């Protein structure tokens, strides 16, 4: 057996033994140990690594799905805000737009009060129902 492979297997066995709480002497690898026990230990190591890999892949897939959903929601919100912004631009007077641009350049917050003489249209028209509401 190649010395490097022997040392790697001995390290793997020592590492697993320490994890399992067994003594190094009970799982000792030397020239007298059978090839079957070495293969069995190698198989257990591979199974453990495959299990860790599958758990990590599952967790990553779940996180990707969550992030895709968040991106989708943010794209929808961005589209809605762009539409609202365009609507506000079309409804604003040139004076209001100039005032807003000036506020953006100076960094001051926009005024919350409306200038004299301007009226804001109602958000929703009143519903016209023919029957009583409960």
Chain-wise SSE layout:
Layout: H1 3-20, H2 35-91, H3 94-106
Quick structural gist:
With 134 residues, this protein is mainly alpha-helical. Helix content is 66%, strand content 0%.
Could you name the key traits of this structure?
about 130 residues, about 0% strand, mainly alpha, rod-shaped
Care to describe what's here?
The chain is mostly helical. The protein is 66% helix and 0% strand. It has helices at 3-20, 35-91, 94-106. α1 (3-20) packs across α2. The termini are far apart.
Distance between the termini: 88 Å
Helix content: 55-70%
* Largest sheet, strands/sense/barrel: none
Whole-angstrom Rg: 35 Å
Q: List the uncertain runs.
A: 23-27, 122-132
- Overall average pLDDT: 76
Report strand %.
Answer: under 5%
Supply the number of helical segments. 3
* Structural class determined from secondary elements: mainly alpha
Shape: rod-shaped
User: What is the strand tally?
Assistant: 0
* Run of helices and strands: HHH
Family: Belongs to the TSC-22/Dip/Bun family.
Main location: cytoplasm
Subcellular location: Cytoplasm; Nucleus
Protein name: TSC22 domain family protein 1
């Amino acid at each position: 057996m190649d010395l490097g492979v022997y040392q790697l297997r001995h390290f793997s066995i020592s590492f697993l033994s320490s994890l399992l709480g067994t003594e190094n002497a009970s799982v000792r690898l030397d020239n007298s140990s059978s090839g079957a026990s070495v293969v069995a230990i190698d198989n257990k190591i591979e199974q453990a690594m495959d299990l860790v890999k599958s758990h990590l892949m599952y967790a990553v897939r779940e996180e990707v799905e969550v992030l895709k959903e968040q991106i989708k929601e943010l794209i929808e919100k961005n589209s809605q805000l762009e539409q609202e912004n365009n609507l506000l631009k079309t409804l604003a007077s040139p004076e209001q737009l100039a005032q807003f641009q000036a506020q953006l350049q100076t960094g001051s917050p926009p005024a919350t009060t409306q200038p004299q003489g301007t009226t804001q249209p109602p958000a929703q028209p009143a519903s016209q129902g023919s029957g009583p509401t409960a």
